[in-house]
Amino acid sequence: MRSLLILALGLALTLPALAHADTGGARPIAVVAIENEAAPRLIVDQPLAGPLAKGQVFIGYRTENIRIVPVYGKGALDVSPRIGHLHVTVDGAPWHWADASNEPIILVGLPPGPHKVLVELADPTHMVIASKTVEFVVPASAGDGHGH
What we know:
By secondary structure, the protein is α+β, with helices and mostly antiparallel strands.
């Protein structure tokens, strides 16, 4: 009985790996350099309506043909598949923050009124590859926006 269990476990672990063997699967194999990689893409959503009504801004995003990871510097430009991070700027501030969390952008405490968030996709040397601006209004009824 024990050897049958070990055999079943072994098959369960190896069959998925064999199923992805050079079949043109959905994601590239990270150990092989990719020639002619498709251009990176940044898709940014509008803030979620429910939290926004309370003054909390939750902005989802996703990327294509690039992985968001906290790796920086010129040497990281040669990594394949491509890697990068985000720069986030609120309301045209002269500064931004770098984000490599791969989690939604969350802002609280913005005053009621119109706002803009610039989301930039950057390579490991901070060169901007793509950008999207999200515009929204924090309603006056949102209070102080700290309802978290």
